[in-house]
Design brief:
256 residues, mainly alpha, TorD-like, 11 helices, 0% strand, globular, disordered C terminus
């Protein structure tokens, strides 16, 4: 019974984040989101998430989704601001539609759930799709289809857990994030709960290798030294008319 209650609570949280990270102008979805926030504000994970959800509710218009949609656009779609990437493949390899998408397609093939391309155009390894899928798998498990427990566990452990910290950090630090700063606070608290519930460790921080791209205007030290010697030799050496023609040709060619 306790496990069933936890599963239902997890479904509510996954539904909350699905509605926040899947782009929708449907006001019905927005009103459902408001109701979920109110419910979780009364039954929070801790005092910090309660305060975060109270702030979110205070900033949202109870009659219109314009404020939320605008901030979502500014963070994820606006060409004038830094756009946050949303796919697991991007955080894993720096490319879209990479290995993590293949993994998600393989997990999806083990379920009866399929992506409705007419309503959800983004890839299967986007944060919104993963959170929505986790919510739907939870519902199936609650309704007795416990064979999906392993699939859900694997999706969390091998895909979502691997990039959620990096994604959350990007969103929290975005110049336009206001409501979504508090969303990230709630999200990170829930992910910590999920790690405990599913017995999955937090991944080690990624080590980013900084690669310097050589500039065409920068001359390597060895080349600069060689050119300096050539100039000195020309300044102090024989005049052109006294010099060996082959030597002159070599020097000019090297200088280029």
């Amino acid at each position: 019974m306790q496990d069933q209650s936890l599963m239902k609570a997890r479904s509510i949280y996954y539904n909350l984040f699905s509605k926040l990270f899947v782009y929708s102008k449907d006001v019905t979805v927005y009103f459902e989101l408001i109701n979920i926030l109110k419910l979780l504000e009364e039954n929070p994970l801790d005092a910090t998430t309660k305060e975060a959800m109270s702030r979110i509710l205070s900033k949202l218009d109870p009659t219109s989704n314009i404020v939320l949609v605008q901030e979502y656009d500014d963070i994820f779609h606006n060409p004038e601001t830094k756009n946050i990437r949303t796919t697991a493949s991007y955080y894993d390899e720096g490319v879209e539609s990479g290995k993590k998408r293949v993994e998600m397609l393989q997990f999806l093939a083990k379920t009866k759930i399929r992506r409705n391309e007419s309503e959800f155009a983004e890839y299967e390894d986007t944060i919104g799709f993963i959170l929505t899928l986790m919510a739907e798998l939870n519902e199936l498990i609650v309704n007795g289809e416990e064979e999906y427990k392993n699939t859900q566990h694997c999706i969390f452990a091998e895909v979502l857990n691997d990039f959620i910290e990096d994604f959350a950090k990007e969103v929290y630090e975005h110049e336009c994030a206001d409501i979504f700063k508090d969303v990230v606070i709630v999200l990170k608290a829930f992910i910590e709960f999920e790690r405990l519930y599913l017995e999955v460790s937090k991944p080690e921080p990624r080590i980013e290798v900084q690669r310097e791209v050589p500039s065409c205007d920068v001359i390597p030290d060895s080349e600069a030294e060689r050119r300096a010697k050539n100039k000195a030799m020309k300044a102090n050496g024989p005049k052109i008319e006294d010099a060996d023609p082959d030597s002159i040709a070599y020097d000019v060619e090297a200088e280029i």
